[in-house]
Amino acid sequence: MALTAKQQRFVESYLLDLNATQAAIRAGYSKGTADKQGPRLLAHPDVIAAIDAAKLARSERTQVDADYLLRRLFEEAEADLADLYDENNNLKPIEEWPEIWRQGLVAGVEIDALYEGSGEDRRQVGHVKKIRLSDRLRRLELIGKHVGVNAFQDQVAMSGVEGLADRIARAKLRNGSDG
């Protein structure tokens, strides 16, 4: 079955940030009901098939897949902070850093001058360079969500299980069934 134009817009919009409510709004559904429409659309088999197909096509285009993520995670986990320093323990110029560090492992560099004396006698005696490291794992989790590699599936598999026994018991009572 083909998707309606609105459902297709939802699929395209959903792929931007994986937020069903916002995707529903951007696709033209009412803001007042978007929090219900988004999950409803995500339960629709044709919509899910279209999302999966679009994710697969994007993964093929970008060549970002489970192998890429695991390879990248390994490279980042193995990146040695010592590679950023020279033999005198001074921070190397950025252009001399290994590529893996230049691609976002360092969130920032701060350089503070150290002075002694005051007034006209004040002079710089050195400097302190500090580097801030980025949250590598969080970035990979987001990529993993977008390409659907299920690399972080444990949390997804467990969601919605809370209270399952109570819901089953209530359903049995509604249906007049005892077992």
Number of helices: 9
* Tally of strands: 2
Radius of gyration: 26 Å
Mean pLDDT: 82
Portion of residues in helices? 40-55%
Biggest sheet strand line-up: 1-2
Structure classification = alpha+beta
H/E series: HHHHHHEEHHH
What does this structure look like?
This protein has 179 residues and is α+β, with helices and mostly antiparallel strands. It has two domains: 1-62, Arc Repressor Mutant, subunit A (Orthogonal Bundle), CATH 1.10.10; 64-161, no CATH class. 55% of the residues lie in helices and 12% in strands. It has helices spanning 5-17, 20-27, 34-42, 45-62, 66-78, 99-105, 136-147, 153-158, 164-175, and strands at residues 106-116, 123-133. Strands 1-2 form a two-stranded antiparallel ribbon. Strand 1 and strand 2 form a beta hairpin. The longest helix has 18 residues, at 45-62.
Layout: helices, strands, pairs:
Layout: H1 5-17, H2 20-27, H3 34-42, H4 45-62, H5 66-78, H6 99-105, E1 106-116, E2 123-133, H7 136-147, H8 153-158, H9 164-175
Antiparallel strand pairs: 1-2
Helix pairs in contact: 1-2, 1-4, 2-3, 5-7
Concise summary:
By secondary structure, the chain is of the alpha+beta class. It has helices at residues 5-17, 20-27, 34-42, 45-62, 66-78, 99-105, 136-147, 153-158, 164-175, and strands at residues 106-116, 123-133.
